[in-house]
Amino acid sequence: MQTSTPSSTQKKVVARSEWEKKLSEVEVNKRDLNKLVMNYLVIEGYKDAAEKFSQECGLQLDTDLESIQDRELILNAIQNGNVEEAIERVNDLNPEILDTHPRLYFHLQQQQLIEYIRQGKIARALEFAQEELAPRGEDNPEFLEELERTMTLLAFEDNNQSPVGDLLHPAQRRRTARELNAAILTSQSQEKDPKLPSLLKMLVWAQNQLDEKMSYPRINNLATAELVDNEDTTTL
Amino acid sequence: MSGLSTASRIFSYYPLSISSVSQSNGPSTRSYHSNSHNSSSLQSNLSNKNKYSKLQGPRLPSYLADTTFADLYAASSSESYTRNGSVPDSDQASFALPTAWNIDDKSTNLELSEDRLRVNYTGVGKNDTDAAAIRANYPMPPQCGLFYFEVDIISKGKEGFIGIGFCGKSVQLNRLPGWENMSWGYHGDDGHLFCCSGTGKPYGPQFTTGDVIGCCVNFRDGTAFYTKNGAILGTAFRDLKGVLYPSIGLRTPNESVEVNFGHKEFKFAIDHYMKEQKALQWQIINATPMPPISSPVMSTPVLRASSEANLTTTVHQLIFSYLVHHGFSETAKAFYKDAVHFLNIDSDLMEDIEYEQSAPGTEIDMLNRQRIRNAVLRGDIDQAIKLTSALFPSVLPANDDIHFRLRCREFIEMMGRCSGTRAAATEDEDDNLVKVEKHGMIGRPQMAVGDGDEDAHITPIRKKKNSIKRKKISYDADGLDSHIESAMRFGQKLQQDYQDDTREEIKSALEEAFSLLAYSDPANSVVGYLLHPSGREPVANALNSAILASQGKPAIPQLERIFRQTSVAVKELSRCGVGTTAFVNVNNDCLARKNN
């Protein structure tokens, strides 16, 4: 609901110099950014980096290193395809986590199934699916659908052709790892979402929205963060 | 700085509950004075001061405290109300909030209390043409995301024909809210809604004396809902647009209502509703697909999770470049190792980072920059200058200002090294005092030696000294004087090199540094802050940036540029009147300021 929006034909144009002045007026200091980085390292479980960063930039760690390391080991296990090890470690840490997160536990088992298929242990995969996953799918239609999707992996010889090939991509492991990480952090009453990804999301969203209102120098490549002149702004 | 004190005065009405926000919003060091300050600044504008002494000043309801709007509101009210306390003009007006009824925008059949919050019906109340409405002093700005107000039904009067809602600026005021085009209302006698029409439709319960009716316009989705005695009644209107003023209408004798625009607590938990709306907005933001990474790495089949993978990769690149930029080499190494380990399967992604960021020499440069930074941070400026000259020989000649700042800092560090011992000195050993003063250090006029140049540079110090009672000091025979001597020689050389420099910042920096000489115990003097090690960091950052720039690398780390761009983009969106921005706040939502 807009009140005084100029029509798109007369979009406001902000010159680069004016925009850069606005950028320079933003209040942010190095300590804020250090904290932003530390927040990511701690929540995502980069124990060594967090420890070194604490030493190099002088920020106190508000979590003990051991708890970061616990999570790091668990997450690494998943990243390396050792789901069994991850489950054992989580249960050592706090057996209630998996008990109280049935969806997470299902996803871990699904990940285990994916790993069996990846390793070509088809007989083991079928056995595991029938014994562990199928009974749970009966209770929950959503789980059943996920299970069926996973079993489709067996239907294609070339996974690049498979419509469910994404399950074999590292991003799938990462997704499972992230869900597990969040559950562990929540169980420890810690923040579970790092701020830095939110910052990037916010930038993408805000720039998309702002495109409808005005023409301004944009950041298109988030990694290089280069300010790209808009066509309209270069002519000024 | 004068603006700051004005701003803090203006914000005397800022509710205390937002103190956490003001803390995290950076620029504002707001103080909370007593209310009287603020009302007086507003009053001065009014013809009859006494009559309106209870008038509400600018104030932000607590549910808006965490929004982007809060920042803009802060900036705009301090601007607009400092100009003779006049009513904000066009641009600023868009950030003003309704705070009271408008005495100049009401039906003649209504009477307004002194504080302009209570409205009584004074007409004959025979038929619908006797209806009487009033608008608030400002429209609801869409940038605030949500606007909520409550109306106390003080008395239902004869019939209780009371309408509560909002309308456009030009809607006639001899009608109840909702009966006209651009007018929306909820009526107490029948509980019906009127949406730009004389015909109502059933909505909620009737309301009468003692009830509190709330009205909320949601600018995120263009809807409105009402509450009765703190309970939500469900969506009332959709597709709202235009400039809308809160409005109420009365129709029969003795009807009386009082509005709460947020100056006291609401019956309805609007803060909680605001939180829910924030969460919804963040769901939308989080669902925004990330742009693809502009390298060929992602040419693998389109993935369900590719947007997420892009995000993670980008975050890793930003963190790594940030660590490299600031020379946090140990962290950078550990992070690189961990990140590669963590992403071991798609090492192609990390190879991309490696290729771009860890080109041969990068790590050595990073270590060298860290050595230089550490030298500055521990106060060993001489070492930092030597290292910079040896490792990055083009930097200092090309950046005279940074070279100056380094030398100035070195002078300050030298003074700092003298400082502790100067204070401890006894008063008796005049020999040493003379010895020191011979070099113009303490600078008694008659003792100052040397040519006109030196006199010239000592002048500003003398001025300051005139007002200072100096006690006679002296120094141990061993060592101390050599510290001071060398500090002074260094200072004189610095003064000599820059005496013809007309740049204001150089002149004032020199003056500041030399003022340390005016005190027997500089560390505990009014300029003692100059000696504080925290002054090293900006110098270290400037030097680091200059070295990076000399290598064709960005002087500001990518991560910082991302933050700045985000902050400006969101603020601009809000300035354009986009209501969704109220539900986000870059400082609160995207920085981790709360911890530590």
Automatic annotation (TrEMBL), chain A:
It comes from the Eukaryota. Residues 67-124 form the CTLH domain. Transmembrane segments: none annotated. SMART domains: CRA, CTLH, LisH. Pfam families: CTLH, LisH. PANTHER family: RAN BINDING PROTEIN 9-RELATED. This is 7533_t:CDS:1. It comes from Paraglomus occultum.
UniProtKB/TrEMBL annotation, chain B:
Residues 79-266 form the B30.2/SPRY domain. PROSITE patterns: B302_SPRY (PS50188), CTLH (PS50897), LISH (PS50896). It comes from the Eukaryota. Residues 365-424 form the CTLH domain. Residues 31-51 have a biased composition (Low complexity). Residues 24-51 are annotated as: Disordered. PANTHER family: RAN BINDING PROTEIN 9-RELATED. This is 7314_t:CDS:1. It comes from Paraglomus occultum. The lineage of its organism: Eukaryota, Fungi, Fungi incertae sedis, Mucoromycota, Glomeromycotina.
